[in-house]
Design brief:
By secondary structure, the chain is of the alpha/beta class. The protein is 38% helix and 15% strand. The chain has two domains: 11-250, Aspartate Aminotransferase, domain 2 (3-Layer(aba) Sandwich); 252-383, Aspartate Aminotransferase, domain 1, CATH 3.90.1150. It has 14 helices and twelve strands. It is globular and about 75 Å long.
Length: 384
């Protein structure tokens, strides 16, 4: 920190200043990009050797994110899946067993359920994220419980305090994907979770112009991951991406306030719309786990789902009538996006995933909420 360490840093302060070290970088208000592959050390042992292992530009972003998550250290990766797979592999050995919530990110489920099988790792996917269901799925060889709360389609939540206590009592590690809530609105490490992962491509970056991921946890664990999973897999974040990530973090508090305010207003509008059957948003009091969410989160982001009243074809045609939403798989940027995980799925897939037929997912961007509501209304009218 370049200011008095005794001063309490708010999250806004962290985003704006922590780690920038103005004196170190000749007073530059924006730290430079160290866009180099290696670091020579003829006269000074400064601790850097090769960007595949570490880089000063990347460390600026890491320090900010670690502080936001109230963790000891963070390590950035070239993608969200790079961070997720490294966090999982850190705890694995041949014959390990993992318990994972069924509503976790699709590639996470594929990595656990398919990719790791030939290496002797088995995974049990629990249909509900309740602590009792997780406990029932545990085995003597369970090494990891993987959580995602809230999840990105169904917005199911897990009781982080209870799961962390259960895991600690049995010597099992816990990792959570905290991308939806961001470090501003949920800090799982405070509740005893061992590691937090984020897709930095979403809200942390915020501008749909980077791919990245991050792990936050204890300093000793992060040091090992830096030299093992990150360096050996070659998945360190590129310095320019790290610089863009830091730029995005500077506006994170402002953007998240707007995402939250707009999403809640739009979710309430859809909940009262006669052509909408159901809205799934943790910020609504109608959410079945609203009280749990309120007990472990301090705010809500801009991603939620709803089910229109209509056939798959009618809903598909309705999406085509939207004017301000682009159709795309990602979320968390400045732009509003629509995706349709509930269209064209079989009854079997619906039962297995819990995704209802016709489910549409919206990522609410930074446009005027009134503009978005008018756009949704005119498209929904085609369902009559």
């Amino acid at each position: 920190m370049n200011k008095q360490d005794s001063v309490r840093w708010t999250k806004e302060d962290i985003c704006s200043h922590l780690g920038d070290e103005y004196d170190r970088y000749l007073g530059a208000i924006v730290p430079p990009i160290f866009q180099n592959s290696l670091f020579t050390r003829k006269t000074t042992d400064h601790g850097y050797v090769y960007t595949r292992v570490s880089n000063p530009t990347t460390e600026v972003a890491e320090r900010k994110i670690a502080a936001l998550e109230e963790g000891e250290a963070a390590k950035c990766f070239s993608s969200g899946m790079g961070a997720i797979s490294a966090a999982i592999m850190y705890w694995m050995s041949h014959g390990s067993h993992v318990v994972c919530v069924r509503s976790a990110y699709g590639p996470t489920r594929e990595f656990l359920g398919s990719y790791l099988k030939p290496f002797g790792v088995e995974t049990t996917f629990v249909r509900s994220g309740s602590t009792s269901d997780i406990e029932e799925a545990l085995r003597p060889n369970t090494k990891l419980i993987f959580l995602e709360s809230p999840s990105s389609h169904l917005f199911e939540m897990q009781d982080l305090r209870a799961v962390a206590e259960l895991a600690r009592a049995k010597g099992i590690a816990t990792v959570i994907d905290n991308t939806w809530a961001t470090p501003l609105y949920q800090n799982p490490l405070v509740y005893g979770i061992d590691m937090v992962v984020h897709s930095a491509s979403k809200y942390l970056g915020g501008h749909s112009d980077i791919i990245g991921g991050v792990i936050v946890g204890k300093a000793a664990d992060m040091e090992k991951i830096m030299h093992r999973e990150r360096a050996l897999f070659g998945s360190n974040m590129d310095p320019h991406q790290s610089w863009l990530l830091t730029r995005g973090i500077r506006t994170l508090p402002v953007r998240m306030r707007q995402h939250q305010e707009s999403a809640l207003q739009i979710a309430l509008f859809l909940e009262q719309h006669p052509l909408v059957e159901r809205v799934i948003y943790p910020g609504l009091t109608s959410h079945p786990q609203y009280e749990l969410g309120a007990s472990q989160m301090t705010g809500y982001s801009g991603l939620f789902s709803f089910v229109p009243r209509g056939s798959d074809q009618a809903i598909h045609d309705m999406i085509g009538k939207l004017r301000f939403f682009e159709f795309g798989p990602s979320w968390g940027g400045f732009e509003s996006l629509v995706n349709a995980p509930g269209l064209g799925i079989s009854d079997e897939v619906s039962r297995a995933t819990g995704i209802p037929h016709g489910l549409i997912r919206l990522s609410i961007g930074l446009e005027q909420p009134q503009t978005i509501m008018e756009d949704l209304d005119q498209a929904l009218q085609t369902l009559k």
